[in-house]
DNA sequence: TTAGATGCAAATAGTTTGCATTTGT
DNA sequence: ACAAATGCAAACTATTTGCATCTAA
């Protein structure tokens, strides 16, 4: 059983069809989906699952730090990111919104320091870098 | 003139009343507001400014990495965070959604490495830690 | 002077809720 | 058995768009 399902159960939540399907779709999508894509794929996987349950599952997963919503384009349209092992890191081009994922793990010490300083029990973190990708930089240069 | 206004002008955008007001309200709010609060405060500051212009300004600021929307409670209701000097760091309690801000600056080197590796011109970053605060941990313990 | 930005109000997306029914434990 | 979770569809909220007007450069 996946680590996330284990966490769900340990926290006292039921392992329902809707929840396991949403989780599987998230994993199959590379851990990076908009809510619209997610709704569509979940519906394809099992047409009986309602939108509301997908949102309820995402809410729950967010509280358990299994997943994290983050802003994609504009202000609407969140992207849901899996936090396997509790963390995730990526770079977003603020012009074309392309996302590059990268591994990193230099935050362990900072994590421990913050837990001690603020009396928090950390469950994960998300690190986003913003910038302009090479392609967009060229376009901007051309326009100018 | 604020650094952000300078960036706006340098990128070739006009320094309009709506934009400067939105920016000032953001700064006066400690660089941490929901869109609802922002709309209200901007409207108080200058009743002639329309909602649309506030959203358009936020969009622009996001592209310029002056600001970053991040998820507060549930899936709706973004919080806009100023990225002074291009970055910001905080801890969110995933239960009560309280936010603790902290300073940090150990990401400079990683930033440079990523710029080189992915040919990106970085404009900033956001680091969020998730966890359960002491108060919420107590509540959960009581319930169980 | 004039391209770019604005304000308005209507249109659109996206998310949440209430409640009867089903399901995991 | 029974509390918890679901599915549905309607209600809501938040954001975006089109267009005539205004304004910073």
Q: How would you characterize the overall build of this protein?
A:
2 copies of one chain form a homodimer. Chain A has 6 helices and 6 strands, in the order H-H-E-H-H-E-E-E-E-H-E-H. The longest helix of chain A has 13 residues, at 51-63. In chain A, helix 2 packs across helix 3. The radius of gyration of chain A is 17 Å and the shape is flat. The model of chain A has no long low-confidence stretch (mean pLDDT 90). Chain A has 2 domains: 1-82, Winged helix-like DNA-binding domain superfamily/Winged helix DNA-binding domain (Arc Repressor Mutant, subunit A), CATH 1.10.10; 86-144, Ferric-uptake regulator, C-terminal dimerisarion domain (Dna Ligase, domain 1, 2-Layer Sandwich). Chain A is α+β, with helices and mostly antiparallel strands and 144 residues long. In chain A, strands 1-3-2 form a 3-stranded antiparallel beta sheet. In chain A, strands 5-4-6 form a 3-stranded mixed beta sheet. The first copy, chain A, has helices at residues 3-10, 17-28, 35-45, 51-63, 108-118, 134-143; strands at 32-34, 67-71, 78-82, 87-93, 99-101, 121-132. The interface between A and B is large, with 48 and 49 residues. Strand 6 (121-132) of chain A pairs antiparallel with strand 6 of chain B, so a sheet runs across the interface.
């Amino acid at each position: 059983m996946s680590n996330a399902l284990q966490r769900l159960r340990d926290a006292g939540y039921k392992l329902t069809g809707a929840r396991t399907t949403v989780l599987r779709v998230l994993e199959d999508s590379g851990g990076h989906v908009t809510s619209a894509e997610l709704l569509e794929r979940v519906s394809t996987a099992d047409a009986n699952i309602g939108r509301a349950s997908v949102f309820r599952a995402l809410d729950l997963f967010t509280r358990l730090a299994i997943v994290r919503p983050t802003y994609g384009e504009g202000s609407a349209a969140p992207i849901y990111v899996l936090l396997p092992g509790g963390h995730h890191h990526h770079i977003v081009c603020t012009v074309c919104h392309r996302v590059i994922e990268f591994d990193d793990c230099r935050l362990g010490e900072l994590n421990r320091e913050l837990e001690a300083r603020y009396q928090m029990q950390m469950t994960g973190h998300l690190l986003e870098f913003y910038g302009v990708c090479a392609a967009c930089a060229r376009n901007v240069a051309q326009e100018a």
